[in-house]
Amino acid sequence: MSRPARDEDPDRLYTLTGGRSRAGSNVFDLVTLVVSESEPAPGMQSEHARILRLCRYPTAVVEVAAELRLPVSITKILLSDLLDSGRITARHPNTTRGTGRATTLGAAAADLPDPQLLEQVLVGLRNL
């Protein structure tokens, strides 16, 4: 029995990413929502075109990887290419403000809940 996502030909993955092993930025994690900002262009790499078609509505990175049947790390590289060219926007679902471009996933200290409140919630859950 073959597992397509695990037994992927390394040469194909190398070709897809142009030999890169990491995305150019850290803006993508598994739940980052991606939305296409343009239609596929003639001559575009087929995986890039497929991502643009898949992401007409907000789609999580993990869903894109599953649909493409590619490892998440490779998908992130392809998404970074599209982000850099302005063909997609990305937003983490925990952010409340959209910037049009992806932002770093680290929240500002003021945006984080009070640690004491979190601890009280944790104690309450343990007491259930």
Kindly describe this structure.
- With 128 residues, this protein is mainly alpha-helical.
- 40% of the residues lie in helices and 8% in strands.
- The protein is built from five helices and three strands.
- Strands 2-1-3 form a three-stranded antiparallel sheet.
- Helix 3 (61-68) packs across helix 4 (72-84).
- The protein starts with 9 loop residues before the first helix and ends with a helix.
- Mean pLDDT is 77; it is low at 1-7 and 96-108.
Record keyword descriptors for this entry.
128 residues, mainly alpha, three-stranded antiparallel beta sheet, 5 helices, 40% helix
Overall geometric form: elongated
Report the end-to-end length measured between terminal Cα atoms.
45 Å
Question: How much helix, percentage-wise, in residues?
Answer: 25-40%
Strand order of the largest sheet: 2-1-3
Order of helices and strands: HEHEHHEH
Based on helices, strands and strand pairing, what is the structural class?
mainly alpha
- Uncertain stretches: 1-7, 96-108
Q: What is the number of beta strands? A: 3
- Beta-strand fraction estimate: 5-15%
Instruction: Count the DSSP helices.
Output: 5
Radius of gyration: 18 Å
Largest sheet: 3 strands, antiparallel
Mean pLDDT: 77
